[in-house]
Specification:
The protein is an alpha+beta fold and 131 residues long. The chain has helices at 52-66, 82-93, 123-130, and strands at residues 2-13, 28-39, 69-70, 100-108, 111-115. The structure holds the ligand Nc1nc2c(c(=O)[nH]1)N=C([C@H](O)[C@H](O)COP(=O)(O)OP(=O)(O)OP(=O)(O)O)CN2 and zinc ion. Belongs to the PTPS family. QueD subfamily.
Length: 131
């Protein structure tokens, strides 16, 4: 079974790699929504996969790094596209959440991306075991 939680944060960014004149080269902001998913068996003793509070504990340090920030100034986010941000979040959540299967990042109601660890060195073993 899968368990998910949606976290929100507000941040500003600009995209430095877009062509000249692209609107996203200008400073602007988003109300980001991040969906964190874990997959595992429902423990018979607890009736849950893991406590949602454990997801909150893993997310909290990232919220402090991202909320009301200029993302381009955050280490590792000099080109803060949704894709780069999703991978950045994955790499910081995964050590605390071994059951992590997906990080979804939405910049607006109509766009976003999902990262499932496919760029990670152990991606084959992760996806083979969990999909
Ligand atoms: N593959 C990606 N493309 C774009 C990203 C991204 O992260 N990955 N990001 C942006 C910008 O951040 C932009 O703010 C979002 O652009 P857009 O989809 O145009 O959003 P709007 O709300 O401005 O959409 P409108 O339809 O113009 O209202 C761009 N591309
Ligand atoms: Zn943007």
């Amino acid at each position: 079974m899968e368990l998910f939680r949606v976290y929100r944060f507000e941040a500003a960014h600009r995209l430095p790699a877009v062509p000249p004149g692209h609107k996203c080269s200008r400073l602007h902001g988003h109300s980001y929504a991040v969906e964190v998913r874990v997959r595992g068996p429902v423990r018979a003793d607890a009736g849950w996969i893991i406590d949602l509070g454990d997801l909150d504990l893993a997310w909290e340090p990232l919220h402090r790094l991202l909320d009301h920030r200029y993302l381009n100034e955050v280490e590792g986010l000099d080109n803060p596209t949704s894709e780069v941000l999703a991978r950045w979040i994955w790499r910081r959540l995964r050590p605390a959440l071994p059951l992590l299967t997906e990080v979804g990042v939405r910049e607006t109601c109509t766009c976003g991306c999902v990262y499932r660890g496919e760029d990670e060195p152990d991606a084959n073993s992760v996806t083979r075991g969990q999909r």
